[in-house]
Every structure is written in structure tokens, then in C-alpha cells.
């Protein structure tokens, strides 16, 4: 597989891994960096962008949900605000945080910013292994 194809696969796996679909973007990032170590920054940015974009899909899915009754766990997201999305990289919990943030109509650009910071930090740690 070429470097370009590997980076496209990394984007796809990062995007899908941040939605409600299962994905293993960490393993793909690890493989890309082993095969193309000079592409560190490109790979980190692509993985972060794809994963943040996928998280924003979950955010907007939450935004589209009708606001009928207030859920107890959603109040915790409201209390901490968009900084809680630094944890959006966590399996399962991260998806719920993104949905809750969207449902609460939190500021979209702050949500994207905090998601990106948390997701980049996770990928950075993986790249250092």
C-alpha cells in the first residue's frame, strides 16, 4: 500500500472510530507510522482531523434529538461544559459525551476545539510508543 493510500485509510478509520461505529484508528496510526515514520505530523493531523470530524457527527446527531426530558447524566456535561470533550477520545463514553454536548446545544466550535485537543493528545501518545 502506498503512503497516500495508508493516510486515506487512516482518515477513514479515524472518522469511523469516532462515530457510533466501531473502529481501530490507533492500530492504523501505529501501522502507518511504522511503515512511513517520516509522515509523523501528517499522520497525526489526519488522524486528529478525521476523529474530530467523526466526533462532530455524533455532536450533530445529539443536536438533532428532540429535547423532551432532562437526563441526569447530561447535567454533568452541562456542568463541565465543552472542556469535558477533552475526554471524547474515550471508548463509548466519548460518543455519549459528544451526543450529550450536541443535545445540550453547547457551542459547536468550542466542542470541536476541545475534542481535537483531546484526540490529538491521545494520538501523540500512541505515536511515541
UniProtKB/TrEMBL annotation:
Secretion signal span: none
Coiled coil: none
Membrane listed as a keyword: yes
Keywords, alphabetical: Membrane, Transmembrane, Transmembrane helix
InterPro entries: DedA_domain
Superkingdom of source: Bacteria
Transmembrane segments: 43-63, 84-102, 108-125
Protein name: Putative inner membrane protein
Species this chain originates from: Gallionella capsiferriformans (strain ES-2) (Gallionella ferruginea capsiferriformans (strain ES-2))
Amino acid at each position: 500500500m502506498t503512503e497516500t493510500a495508508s493516510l486515506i485509510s487512516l482518515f477513514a478509520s479515524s472518522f469511523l472510530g469516532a462515530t457510533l461505529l466501531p473502529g481501530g484508528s490507533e492500530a492504523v496510526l501505529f501501522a502507518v507510522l511504522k511503515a512511513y515514520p517520516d509522515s509523523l505530523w501528517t499522520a497525526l493531523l489526519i488522524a486528529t482531523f478525521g476523529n474530530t470530524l467523526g466526533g462532530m457527527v455524533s455532536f450533530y446527531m445529539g443536536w438533532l434529538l428532540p429535547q423532551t426530558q432532562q437526563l441526569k447524566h447530561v447535567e454533568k456535561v452541562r456542568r463541565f461544559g465543552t472542556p469535558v470533550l477533552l475526554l471524547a477520545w474515550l471508548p463509548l463514553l466519548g460518543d455519549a459525551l459528544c451526543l450529550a454536548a450536541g443535545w445540550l446545544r453547547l457551542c459547536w466550535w468550542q466542542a470541536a476545539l476541545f475534542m481535537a485537543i483531546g484526540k490529538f493528545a491521545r494520538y501523540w501518545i500512541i505515536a511515541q510508543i
